[in-house]
Amino acid sequence: MTRDQVEKVFALFAAKDLEKVLAAFADDAVVFDPHYPLPEMKGKVAIRQGFEWGLGNMEKAGFTIRNFWAGENNAIVEIDTHHVFKGGMELKFPQVFVIEARGGLVTRLQSYVPYPPPGIGGFLASVVRLMWKLQGKVQ
């Protein structure tokens, strides 16, 4: 994938053009993003439902590419995300997307975020982090 192809997909998200965003995805595409109610969305019906929800809550979506690596049918992109949601709430966070493509269409888009894991894994890590802070092992 080229950087131009990837930038186009994120520009369509930023423009909140749902139909053009969906046109960039294969019918059997899979999207995994922990920010959505159902993090794993398989196929265009599920992807549409997730993207309608996500874009419907945003006033402005923002993506700035920090780093980009690509092969013939894949790319990894590190992005500084800056979204403004309805009501004015802003969220700024980094994330990494792994993208796979076939025939010029996205077949897989997976987001990786710098948050702790959910469930017991995240709970245990936060308990240890607190213990280390109390013991002076971290600043």
Account of the protein in words:
The chain is globular. A hairpin with a 2-residue loop joins strand 6 and strand 7. The protein starts with a helix and ends in a 5-residue tail after the last helix. Strands 1, 2, 3, 4, 5, 6 and 7 form a seven-stranded mixed sheet that branches. It has one domain: Nuclear Transport Factor 2, Chain: A. The protein has helices at about 5-15, 20-25, 45-55, 120-135; strands at about 25-30, 40, 60, 65-70, 75-85, 90-100, 105-110. About 35% of the residues lie in helices and about 40% in strands. With about 140 residues, the protein is an alpha+beta fold. The model has no long low-confidence stretch (mean pLDDT about 95). The chain contains four helices and seven strands; from the N terminus they run H-H-E-E-H-E-E-E-E-E-H.
Name the features.
139 residues; alpha+beta; Nuclear Transport Factor 2, Chain: A; 7-stranded mixed sheet; 40% strand
